[in-house]
Amino acid sequence: MRVVVSILFVLGWLGLGAWLYTRSIYSTSSEALRLYRSGAHAQQVGLAWKATQLYEQALAKDERFIAARASLAEAWMDLDQPKRAAAELQLAAKLRPRWRRLAEYEALLEQASKAQLRGALSESAVFHRRASAAAPESQKSDMLMSEALSYIRAGDTEAAVARYASLEKDSSDRCAAMMTRACLILATQVFPARQLFGDAQTCFEAAGDLDGVAQATYEYRRGVGLTEMDLESVRKTLSIAQSTGNVEQEILAGALLSRILLQIGEDDEAYNVFSRSMQIADQHELKFMAARLLIERAQFYFDKGDFLQAANYHALAATVSRAAETPWTTANCAILGTKLILRMGLVVQARQNIAGARDELRRFPNAALSAQITELEELAEHTRARPEGH
């Protein structure tokens, strides 16, 4: 009789557990959700590293918050850190909520991140769209912004522009939506984009969002081309970043200011400002950011025709990018290195470089970089080799 009672007792508990699982959806704490939303905002305005810090704080409050884990993985991918992204997705699989169902939108975000990691960007965008539809009203705006960003990654600019435009009307994220849409249309609709950047800046100012104010200026100046007239506005952006302690923004604004100074012949100050950005990146162990700055500087000199300086910065970038485990930046280094080598007619070495770039993109696919590599392969085929190249 006792055995029967014990079995019935166990079955009762199992039945109750199954009922709770089907009826109850896991929800995170209000503090974890607040930190997550702050991270989402940082990601929306283009500050991916700041977003990772806030997502990690949210996860410190609740390690089973899968939406934060998936968003953290996506932020790491945007920073060219797929290894860190993969680690977060492995944790998401391991630390799932117990005895409760995962909210549908969180499960879809996790699927979107996995698709992004394997380079299936259109598939990732579909998961994001489904997550937006499934999200509760309190999360709807953030999910729609994430959906728009997924369209950008997938190369569907038209869908991204439409989504951001819809969010500019009454969304809590309307300032970031205006700024990002302005970035997307700047190349083809200069005057509407300028107006939109101005509206975004006014919106950020009214909200007291200094990160947004600085980022709107940075994105506009970076997009319209650099002239001496831009110096003061970029200096202001740098000053805001310093006052708020926004390390990521300070590094990027410093690099942009340095480029303007180079263009107007202020080489000494340009070197000092760039060195300061590199020092900050080093102090905060942001090797992936330092690698990005170095390859951008190498490309700047290459475009100017200063191939010696391009080669110097390229060598530094290649070393740092490998140490930082950044497949896209390392592939970028291989691409620029190939261009430098082909100028000397060293076709065999160029092909070795191209093969190395292909290897990096097998680890973390990138369609735009793959297209550049294909163009280089064709160029190498039609380049007359010097004897050293054989």
Task: Kindly describe this structure.
The chain contains 20 helices and no strands. With 390 residues, the protein is mostly helical. Among the domains are: 226-285, no CATH class; 286-390.
What is the 3D form? globular
Total E-strand runs = 0
- Can you count the helices? 20
CA-based gyration radius: 24 Å
Mean pLDDT across the residues is 92
Q: Determine the strand fraction and express it as a percent band.
A: under 5%
Q: Given the helix and strand composition, which structural class is it?
A: mainly alpha
* H/E topology pattern: HHHHHHHHHHHHHHHHHHHH
Summarize the structure.
The protein has 390 residues and is mainly α. 79% of the residues lie in helices and 0% in strands. It contains 20 helices and no strands.
